[in-house]
């Protein structure tokens, strides 16, 4: 369960699952050095490590890492809360992936997590659309917001790769489905954005 210090985090201390999109991981992450930002219990890291891929994860929820993660991957998971400052992660990374993380962090802390996004040459971001409900959704935005934000940090939107990721995705997060049921022409996979460092 949540303590007073962790009430602001994305999950409620119950559903410490990771969002895992196997086709995207297979096509774009296997064989690369990967960092999962907002990794929850590290399911993405576990999947990639089982595929002989050097993968790491970072999450602010100590319970997700120390209780809900598979013990075999705990050495590859880093507990860090971006509302407390920047992390000390300095690993060489090819690909950063982040599934439903950014909307849980207030704008005033963006600079703290962008350092870690920029560790990767390529960034795969999934974040729900502006106005979508969810526990501690404090910064849901439209795609133009994220494209401009990442550009300000030197990461350029890659339309071609974004389309490729969306094409292979079978992403489904049951927590978000109430939003999508009201918008039948929009699917969760349409919220992927891919960036490359300039």
Give a structural overview.
By secondary structure, the protein is an alpha/beta fold. The protein has one domain (4-197): 3-Layer(aba) Sandwich (Rossmann fold). Helices cover 27% and strands 16% of the residues. The chain has helices spanning 22-28, 43-50, 62-66, 110-117, 143-152, 159-168, 177-181, and strands spanning 34-37, 55-59, 77-79, 95-99, 122-126, 155-157, 192-197.
Short key terms for the protein model shown above:
7 strands; globular; Rossmann fold
Task: Report the count of strand segments.
Answer: 7
**What is the CATH C level class, in words?**
Alpha Beta
Question: Which residues form runs of ≥5 with pLDDT under 50?
Answer: 12-16
How much strand content do the residues show? 15-25%
Count of individual helical segments: 7
The CATH homologous superfamily is called: Vaccinia Virus protein VP39
Strand order of the main beta sheet, please? 3-2-1-4-5-7-6
- How would you sum up the global shape? globular
User: What radius of gyration results from the CA coordinates?
Assistant: 15 Å
Mean pLDDT: 87
């Amino acid at each position: 369960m949540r303590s007073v210090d962790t009430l602001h985090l994305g999950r409620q201390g119950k559903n410490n699952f990771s969002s895992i999109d196997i086709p995207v991981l297979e096509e774009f992450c296997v064989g690369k050095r990967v960092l999962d930002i907002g990794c929850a219990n590290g399911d993405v890291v576990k999947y990639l490590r089982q595929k002989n891929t050097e993968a790491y994860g970072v999450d602010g929820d100590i319970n997700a890492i120390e209780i809900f993660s598979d013990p075999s991957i705990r050495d590859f998971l880093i507990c860090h809360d971006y509302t407390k400052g920047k992390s000390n992660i300095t690993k060489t990374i090819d690909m950063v992936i982040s599934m439903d993380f950014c909307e849980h962090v207030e704008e005033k802390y963006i600079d703290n997590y962008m350092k870690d996004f920029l560790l990767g040459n390529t960034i795969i971001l999934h974040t729900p659309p502006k106005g979508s409900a969810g526990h501690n959704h404090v910064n849901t935005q439209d795609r133009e917001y994220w494209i401009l934000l990442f550009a300000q940090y030197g990461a350029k939107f890659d339309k071609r790769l974004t389309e490729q990721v969306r094409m292979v995705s079978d992403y489904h997060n049951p927590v978000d489905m109430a939003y999508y049921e009201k918008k039948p022409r929009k699917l969760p996979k349409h919220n992927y954005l891919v960036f490359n460092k300039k």
